[in-house]
Amino acid sequence: MQNTELDRTDRRLLGVLQENGRASNLELAEAISLSPAQTLRRHRRLEESGIIKRYEARLDSTALGFGVTAFIHVTMERGHIRDLSKFKGLVAELAQIQECFSVTGDIDYVLKVVAKDLKSLSDFLLDTLMRIPGVSGVKSSVCLDEIKCTSAMPLEA
Hints:
- This protein is an alpha+beta fold.
- It folds into two domains: 8-48, Winged helix-like DNA-binding domain superfamily/Winged helix DNA-binding domain (Arc Repressor Mutant, subunit A, Orthogonal Bundle), CATH 1.10.10; 68-142, Alpha-Beta Plaits, CATH 3.30.70.920.
- Helix content is 34%, strand content 19%.
- The protein is built from five helices and four strands; from the N terminus they run αααβαββαβ.
- It has helices at residues 8-19, 25-32, 36-48, 84-93, 118-128, and strands spanning 68-76, 97-102, 109-115, 135-142.
- A hairpin with a 6-residue loop joins strand 2 and strand 3 (109-115).
- Helix 1 (8-19) packs across helix 2 (25-32).
- The radius of gyration is 20 Å and the shape is elongated.
């Protein structure tokens, strides 16, 4: 990914796209006060530079029957370097895991996980996550209420 210089118009374009990723080029052009051709060039440059990674639909987990969201702190065994690629590969394959971050401190990873209910979460932790080679411990925090959930980036200069 190259380091792309963003001007005010690029930031406005990105802001509109964050609000509505399905906006047509004409809608984008009107929103940022540029011609459709100039807007399309900027849009493509932002995609090609990697600033725009992908487009996706954000689904409502509760509407799909996932009533539990949990944050899982994973601790790996000392010297777990040999198991890292296997751990990362399995995490990437497990659909329940929405996000995974390698972090500093007393734990090694933080996972955001969705489950149908608490029993499903427990089964996932005991039967799947704890059985991954190198995992020595997990601690979970169940989300009581979602206050803010966004993937929108702050765009002020």
